[in-house]
Amino acid sequence: MYKLKHLKAKHTVYVFGGAVSDELMSVMDFPIEGSDCLASDLGFQVGGCGMNVLRIMTQLKVPCFPGIIVGKGRVAKAVKKELKRLGYTSNFKNSEHDNGHCMVLISPNAERTFITVMGAENYWQEEFFNDIKPKKKDIVYVSGYELLQPLNEALVNFLKNLPLEQKVFFDLGPMAESLAESLPELWSRPGAILSINNDEFKTLHAEQILDPNSPYKPGVLIHRNGAKPTKLYLLQDDKNYEMHEVECFETKVIDSVGAGDAFAAGYLTALAANEAHTSAARYGNACGAVALSQKGPSIKLTWPRLTS
């Protein structure tokens, strides 16, 4: 197995994603319509893709910009408190809505199902981006939830105005199908890194993206393949990809909440340290494995843990 080393980030990662409350519950059987289902309370945590990614990279000493909207209300207070704990203050404010909340149902096989109420985290404004100018080698992360129409225009315009070579990590998540229909041109650029899991690979018909004749081609396509090796597709010219397989790390699976976000954080951490994409995928796999071994999205991850 590949031995990871302690990396020192040289570039900033701009994190544009949501922060919500996660109400975690374990269920023996998934409820069907009209049924009454008993559950065990696993507690409350501040989660959301943006917050999860930001929290892990902060623990790994990566300089980050917190592009997270903070609303007004009970959840927003918890989000603000968590950002402060991590050493951040967000300038993205929304005084009309509370941040969203999410019920996370965890089944005995550690699979998770989400019921999400979206809130302030999706209300992007043009003024948020007036003074945001990533440097050439900085990296941008964006979560699929925050690209949903009709509230995404300001964020989409910001992304479209970035240089084509700027590294932009797109983590579409459950919104892959909707975004494939509305925004495929957004990740059709040399600097785009499109990260998808098995379900999203099928939803996006990603084999068509890999076809030499496809008009929509990210510079990098990551296929997170469960316990199997991660498949990394690197665009070699305007048409053809070169595929690399990157082995996963064995771990005891407790639950899978936040595992995809942890992969993104590990991958971005390596890119911020000037590592190649194949090395970044190893760090992503390692962070994902640590996430699978813990409960909930509030992943505790340090360099000694990652390099042991």
Explained architecture:
The chain has 308 residues and is of the alpha/beta class. The protein has a single domain, classed as UDP-N-acetylmuramoyl-L-alanine:D-glutamate ligase, CATH 3.40.1190. The chain is 28% helix and 23% strand. Strands 4-1-7-8-9-10-11-12 form an eight-stranded mixed sheet. A hairpin with a 5-residue loop joins strand 11 (230-235) and strand 12 (241-246). Helix 7 (259-272) packs antiparallel against helix 8 (277-292). The longest helix has 16 residues, at 277-292. The radius of gyration is 18 Å and the shape is globular. The mean pLDDT is 91.
Which fold name corresponds to the CATH topology?
Answer: UDP-N-acetylmuramoyl-L-alanine:D-glutamate ligase
Helix/strand structural class? alpha/beta
Query: Strand fraction band?
Result: 15-25%
Name of the CATH architecture: 3-Layer(aba) Sandwich
Q: Report the CATH superfamily.
A: Ribokinase
What gap, in angstroms, lies between the N and C termini? 12 Å
- Helix-strand pattern: EEEHEHEEEHEHEHHEEEHHH
Q: Radius of gyration from the CA trace?
A: 18 Å
The DSSP helix count reads 9
Mean pLDDT: 91
Helix content percent band: 25-40%
Number of domains: 1
Shape: globular
Uncertain runs:
none
What characterizes the major β-sheet? 8 strands, mixed
Number of DSSP E strands: 12
Spatial sequence of strands, sheet with the most strands: 4-1-7-8-9-10-11-12
CATH class label: Alpha Beta
Search tags:
308 residues, alpha/beta, UDP-N-acetylmuramoyl-L-alanine:D-glutamate ligase, eight-stranded mixed beta sheet, 9 helices, 12 strands, 28% helix
